[in-house]
Amino acid sequence: MAEYLFGLVVALALRRERRLRDRLDLLALSDTDLLDNYRFPRHDLIELIQELEPGLGRRTRRANAIPTQTQVLVALRFFASGSFQNIVGDIGGPSQAAVSRIIRDVSNALSNKAVEEIRMPSTAQDLSVSAQTFRRMRNFPRVIGALDCTHFAIKGPSVDENIYVNRKRYHSMNVQVVCDAAKLIISFCARFPGSTHDSFIWNNCALRHWFDRGDFGNYLLLGDTVYALESFLMTPVTHPTTVPEERYNRGHCRTRVTVEQTFGILKSRFRGKGAWLPQVMVPGAAGDGARVKFMGFGGGNLGYGAPAAYRGMESGVMVMVFPEGKR
């Protein structure tokens, strides 16, 4: 009897896994379904699956292991909808725990890719090409990136909850992003809670340290008026009074707008409630502070990095205590 029950449990589990694979067959889904539910066209999904295969492919004796394709689609469905119920309803098989494991594994695989792919230009040729691309927009010289911060809503954590409340009174992470002229993210810092001011993040991030020590030569970034003017960070003239100042501001605005457009593209693609938002996890006995998985990217602290291999991603949370009125 016990052997019969065990065999029945195994058979049901294998049936659920087969159903999971069958319901998420990339070739069987229409182009419209892929865009609506997974937010990417077919050719991009195929490329992403191929890139993540080394990290997600499992060595197992079982013939029914969940393939990389299915794992990626499950994770993207969650990022797009923010709902476990939608995923379970769509594929009708795995438990929420199984879906959670898939999302964790895909997030870790994306984290590894982020460390490789998200980086500032570092060679003389890359810097020159980036600056030339920006200059073709509005004739603004020596610019290699547009800088800004944006808020991603999170569920308020149980530890230090108040520092995650931003000026609009909801819990968030304030994330600093630098993009290039093609609206590709080349650096981001996801270490700070929602109450942190944009300028504080800039003054305490690794990227500013690199600029300050001259690693990017005479190239510079564009930022808005919340930042202080620096030799490597150009900001608008607060109260322009001359024609050259007005012309400068127009060129600055029309060049820096790329980062605003980047935010729009990102948030419109994953616009579901809770979709692609940070998951703040506060360890219990570990006591090593909060850690963040942002936009599917986890990872350890990258520190300031080596100049020969700039990495654009900073993870982990810096918990700050702000005097009243100084956020």
From TrEMBL:
InterPro entries: HARBI1-like, HARBI1_animal, HARBI1_dom. Residues 147-271 form the DDE Tnp4 domain. Keywords: Cytoplasm, Hydrolase, Metal-binding, Nuclease, Nucleus. GO terms for cellular component: cytoplasm; nucleus. Its main location: cytoplasm. Its cofactor is a divalent metal cation. It is found in: Cytoplasm; Nucleus. It comes from the Eukaryota. Transposase-derived protein that may have nuclease activity. Does not have transposase activity. This is Putative nuclease HARBI1. It comes from Chionoecetes opilio. The gene is HARBI1_18.
